[in-house]
Amino acid sequence: MTVETPIRFSPLSEWQDDFAQLPTGLQVRELPYLTQLTLRVAPGSAAAKAVESALDITLPGPLRAELSGDVKVLWMGPDEWLLAAPEGLQDELLAQLRSAIGDEFAAVTDVSAQRTTLALSGHLVREVLAQGCAIDLDPRATPVGSCLTTLLAQAPITLVVRGEGASSVWLLVRSSFASYLATWLVDAGTEYRGSSG
């Protein structure tokens, strides 16, 4: 008996041509199949320390992200983090973390199908996002490593600042809002077409 691997469809697979039409100061690309795991654990607990040891990271504090390794760790709440890693590592990471946690009180759940990620870069990122997001993206307010759950054009997102002055960000959005958000980004970028740079 042959078991067929299910075909995966990115929520924004048909948007690449639209993103390519954006002005040069705003590049948008989808990172569609990132491994995403939700970690629920009490900060400073034995389970949290076991996770930190297993991943060789420190769980970031409020409104921060740890971006240095292959596994990015995003603070989502007082006892919740989102682990984002390259595609296809769900099973390996789940096994590694569950083994590290053992009988300690914590939970790790695969939520990879829940969201997609948009990577934005360029000197227009801050300006475009300011049209639909109330977060102050000035580097003094949101330096590199900031991780904020907010709204962009009324769509719930997690915004991760990856470059100085928000010149590079990730927008993590639920798959059901992805097309709406892509439409908004393309529309918001339209007025900058033909501008220098």
Automatic annotation (TrEMBL):
<protein>
    <submittedName>
        <fullName>Sarcosine oxidase subunit gamma</fullName>
    </submittedName>
</protein>
<dbReference type="InterPro" id="IPR027266">
    <property type="entry name" value="TrmE/GcvT-like"/>
</dbReference>
<dbReference type="Pfam" id="PF04268">
    <property type="entry name" value="SoxG"/>
</dbReference>
<dbReference type="InterPro" id="IPR007375">
    <property type="entry name" value="SoxG"/>
</dbReference>
